[in-house]
Design brief:
Two copies of one chain form a homodimer.
Chain A: E1 2-3, E2 25-26, E3 68-70, E4 78-83, H1 93-106, E5 111-115, H2 119-131, E6 134-139, H3 145-153, E7 157-161, H4 165-173, E8 181-183, H5 192-197, H6 200-209, E9 215-219, H7 224-238, E10 247-253, H8 258-265, H9 270-274, H10 297-306, E11 310-314, H11 316-330, H12 336-339, H13 341-350, E12 359-364, H14 372-375, E13 384-386, H15 391-396
Parallel strand pairs in A: 4-12, 5-6, 5-8, 6-7, 9-10, 9-12, 10-11
Antiparallel strand pairs in A: 1-2, 3-4
Helix pairs in contact in A: 1-2, 6-7, 7-10
Chain lengths: 398, 398
């Protein structure tokens, strides 16, 4: 384990943040003669590149091993969906929480805490239940009841903290290691273990295509997923399992485009990044992507620069339309925070950034079924009304 | 293809209902030297026991191949969940619609029609989209907008028919074969092809356990799934891939217990079954199971009798509690229509019907994420409210 900021090396099993500089940890692996364990399901095939104690029994709901579906959208490219909606709670976060909760149980934790009523909250609640650990979901006030309900179904303890979300996140870090509490939040500076779970998406894509694609397009919220994907592709190339690296495109909400601004301005330090004039309170349906200053944003920027990538901003309406276009073309119901992929890929194809015929993977992060309640007021359905006697003509034509 | 009622044999590729007697068709397969095609994913491994034209290209979203998860519920038995929530639209119906829509496209249909805004409706909309066919969802008035919304996301044409549901179902049958319309409704008498898709659950269970379990417990709505499961287990035994057959338990809503009444009274003919005094309009949250007279009920009864099985009735409140118990113990979020499994299995264990140590598979048919809106008014979440300064004590203990 090595600090990304000050290069300090660390071997403790329960250290989360660099004790020297407060920076985020990464892990180094021996890639020589790398082979997957094909007797294991999903992400556990890749255990050799996951930072878990050798004897730790996996906490698993059979996450990962998701399909790569060829899209029928007519964009002049070879577009595939990496369908992460097929994970146990409907998002790629299940990969990360499977690793975090496995680590938590291995080091003797009694409960797993996150600050999230979104995908991370669901994954944490489900995996903690699976592990026989307690789970705690911290949230700010005003979280919609529809989003909270599944957390109660997983038996999570729900705590609404009278403060803003950034302050709660900061406070949550300090809970770790006391009284059996483990903090599973999916920010690398809070928990570097979970961050390794997301790499497995890259391993699977290379396995499914037999090579890295030309482009991977990724909805970006906290920035950790795109950073992890990049490390995954680099590890595949370094291990000789891919001969090249993909270019990465990050998709963000129009109102939360700090990443795009920083990318354009060449910003690569935390102070200037945090000073960008974005706010956390602009309403958007793209709740999974609405970080004013993504906590793993610098890592995301590094991945974008290293991959000769780009950033695309998408608004709410176009995102919802994207969800519906993927649904109608491909039978895939994406939450709007993943529906952003359709207009983003279309734009990159139209302006020539993605060349005709290119192999493009869209990371379909989250299922629409968890977000129907939020889409409903924006797209109230209006069925046709037909009398019984007129049914045959209406369906089969005159 | 052979009629279950009058034994007429039929070879037409687009015949759905026995032209001689109006009965339901079954299929006969050559089981000698049966081997699965392990190069194919999910249900397509079992294609040799699916009634599809040899050259038909599968319409697939990578359905089936679902996990068999060991439960942590303390019931004194070896309980496993066959986790059908992991299918593309969140239920086992995806297996059936994959087969139906593959058949539809193979025989040149232009659109696939069902009468269902529930699991069947979602599967039909998704697979028709995947196949590049149109889809039509017929429904009666008063269907909740939350249930309709995902259907619009899949681009389905929604038609509300001014009539009761049984009349709409009867009318839908007559749409088939006209103007390119294919009817995919998951009732065997309407479409015997789809009914074969559900068998693949039995094949997978035998493969995962290496043998048939002692019991399979199944939520029953229309009755087709439990009938298909039974055929699947019989085929496994006849092919020599299992040495025995499981006992089957059907779980129904208390207010919709025609199956239990018929089972107890030894009813095995349609007239007496239809005469049982059950109604279609009793409100219940168990909407996936609320058939007054399940259309494939006689087949379900036959499977229950042949397997020395039983019927258990569960009420709404116990079902919701069952969903939450599975969530907290196993990290599995079931819709209440599958949450019924927990109290049902508990009751069968408590009264000695299921013996201690028995291997029991609960067919977890549908995901809770699609039904949160319906659970919400019955279980409004109430998070604890904690001040920031009190957070550490609240989470970690004093």
């Amino acid at each position: 384990m090595i600090c990304l900021d000050c290069s300090r090396e660390e071997t403790g099993r329960d250290v989360m943040t660099c004790p020297a500089c407060g920076g985020s940890f990464a892990f180094r692996y021996d890639l020589a003669g790398l082979r997957w364990d094909d007797t294991m399901p999903g992400i556990w095939r890749f255990r050799r590149l996951l930072p878990l104690p050798p004897g730790a029994e996996p906490v698993s709901l059979d996450e990962g091993g998701t399909p790569l579906l060829k899209s029928r959208l007519d964009l002049g490219i070879d577009l595939r969906w990496k369908d992460e909606t097929r994970n146990p709670t409907g998002s790629h976060k299940d990969r990360q929480l499977a690793v975090a909760v496995t680590h938590a149980r291995a080091i003797g934790a009694r409960r797993s805490v996150v600050v999230s009523a979104g995908s991370t909250g669901l994954s944490n609640a489900a995996y903690a239940a699976r592990a026989g650990l307690g789970s705690v979901t911290l949230m700010s006030s005003g979280t919609p009841a529809e989003r909270i309900l599944p957390l109660t179904a997983y038996g999570s303890r729900l705590i609404e903290v009278a403060s803003d979300i950034d302050t709660i996140i900061a406070a949550a870090r300090h809970l770790a290691g006391h009284g059996g509490t483990y903090v599973s939040s999916t920010t690398r500076s809070t928990n570097p273990y979970q961050a390794e779970g997301a790499k497995t998406v890259a391993f699977e894509i290379v396995g499914q295509l037999g090579e890295a694609p030309d482009w991977v397009v990724v909805p970006v919220g906290g920035g950790g997923t795109i950073g992890a994907l990049w490390r995954g592709f680099v590890e595949m190339r370094d291990a000789g399992l891919a001969t090249r690296l993909p270019r990465l495109a990050a998709v963000v909400p129009t109102a939360y485009d700090a990443l795009g601004a920083a990318f354009a301005a060449g910003i690569d330090d935390r102070a200037r990044f945090e000073a960008l004039p974005y706010r956390d309170d602009v309403p958007t349906i793209l709740t999974k992507l609405s970080h004013a200053h993504p906590p793993d944003g610098l890592e995301a920027l590094e991945a974008l620069r290293a991959s000769d990538g780009t950033v695309v901003a998408v608004d709410d309406e176009t995102a919802i339309e994207g969800s519906f276009r993927a649904g109608a073309a491909d039978g895939l119901y994406l939450e709007p925070s993943s529906g952003v992929l359709v207009p983003a890929i279309e734009r990159l194809t139209a302006d020539g950034t993605i060349r005709p015929g290119a192999t493009v993977v869209g990371l379909a992060c989250g299922s629409g079924f968890r977000e129907s309640f939020a889409i409903l007021p924006r797209r109230p359905p209006s069925p046709e009304r037909v009398a019984l006697a007129a049914l045959a003509a209406a369906v089969n034509g005159a």
